[in-house]
Here is the input.
Amino acid sequence: MKLASLKHGRDGRLVVVTDDLTLMASVDDIAPTMQAALDDWPCVSPRLADRAAALSAGDNAQAMEFDPVACAAPLPRAYQWADGSVYLNHMELVRKARGAELPASFLTDALMYQGGSDIMLGARDDIEVIDEEWGIDLEAEIAIITDDVPMGIVPDGAAGHIKLVLLANDVSLRNLIPTELGKGFGFFQSKPATSFSPVVVTPDSLGDAWDGRKMHGAVDVTVNDQRLGNLEAGADMYFDFAQLISHAARTRHLGAGTIVGSGTVSNRDRSRGSGCLAENRTIETIETGTPKTPFLKFGDRVTIDMRDAAGASIFGGIDQKIMRYTPR
Amino acid sequence: MKLASLKHGRDGRLVVVTDDLTLMASVDDIAPTMQAALDDWPCVSPRLADRAAALSAGDNAQAMEFDPVACAAPLPRAYQWADGSVYLNHMELVRKARGAELPASFLTDALMYQGGSDIMLGARDDIEVIDEEWGIDLEAEIAIITDDVPMGIVPDGAAGHIKLVLLANDVSLRNLIPTELGKGFGFFQSKPATSFSPVVVTPDSLGDAWDGRKMHGAVDVTVNDQRLGNLEAGADMYFDFAQLISHAARTRHLGAGTIVGSGTVSNRDRSRGSGCLAENRTIETIETGTPKTPFLKFGDRVTIDMRDAAGASIFGGIDQKIMRYTPR
Here is the structure.
């Protein structure tokens, strides 16, 4: 089953979408919003699946054309965005560029930060930034959404709480990060609103691309129509989503609608490119002593997408422009 | 005007409460939840104020007895919990105990971390913790709730976005903090669910206790009925709430219902005591080389309250027990 939130009020309007992303159907009578569906997933999801099946079977009385441009983020505001960093290659490169080793604890204890979740961007929304000099970067990530997760759950139990899979663009302001992390309290200003794919997919609809704990397949990333990365999502994911959920739930329950991110997808095979500009700059620094790739400028366009074996977009694709925001 | 959320479903049920916290009235016909009220504050708040005024005037047809025990957190789940640390005395002590100076930047750039907000505890809810050895501590804080705040707002503009004032217990797991902060991504496991006072108050109902940007008056903190602190909230608050909101909104819009915290209230006058056990332990370390005050144990009780000149509780008081949680 595939779902999306149309732009509507603060929380969007939930719709079911055909697997080929061409048609959608209203589900107002089942659940008005994605959050409402997640709050009551055991009851609601079978009814949504029935509606999706009817739509796919040609019950076109309710069918409307699906347009990703009309979509908000699947959860336009969420109660939790817990973003991991589980592609060790990315972290190793960043440290290598500054002459440091990866701490041994990074192999046993997942990295995760608490992200802002009060305003999430739709897949086609502009990324508004006040100052180009802040070092605007994209980060191509896989993410999942959970139902209610009890405190202290182990990874084997956590896997069953993965209800939806999606893509994320964890927009980062690189030049604000050193000062902010130096203060010791983690990211705040350096992580503005995050963007998500138009469509979320239930694990059972992902076929072989989902192994129960992680996503497989190529993540295509472009900047101004140039390929930045064609990354294999499953290849170098050191901690899987079940482990990330268990990590997040170590000392507290997690509410339904918790979004958990993988961190920037990154492969050891450098021919696959990068999921963010910072990684390119890091490789350039290691190889030549100086970063060459610029960060994003106003007007630049970034895309993140995954396609199935037939070349069709699975999640509808993220496609955003960087725009200047002027405070009033 | 004073408001509370009765325990009901995931988001509570909004009620207005008399200033003396004895009576409450239903506002189901105006706004079902605190979040719904904040989403439409300019329209909703005058109607809530009318209901509160009628209740205070003796319109007892709708009046019910108010009981803080029946209260959830004002926002039982919130879209944002942005917690500052603006009592420099607290930070200076922590650093002094380990022989470090306060960085000069701390005087110009507020400290703030992104807290988990998917599950908030009511003022009388138990604090469930799996392991006593994690170093369970309370943190007595003042907090405010905003409406929608635009990106890049300056402090003078931010002050007008403070819609509600409340108390917080920012529960911390001290023994998990060094490892977690050492990883560089800020707090996650070391900050379990936060607790809030039963009642929120509009700034105009706080009289002289609210100066437009910060709270004044004594915060009483006890552990097992022993006084831990009787702290003056306004005395040593280095950054005020307008500055904290401006800090949080530097690179992004803030959604209605954003909760902003002050960090542990802390006074330079040591006769006022402490707002958390860690500060006592820090002072003991500075004075004797060894911390003596233990962290909280299962069964321990903590209270946080502020009283007006007549001795009446302003926010209804936080009163919680630490309880062991055993994962299933």
In short: The radius of gyration of chain B is 19 Å. The longest helix of chain B spans residues 41-56. Chain B touches chain A through 58 residues (CB under 8 Å).
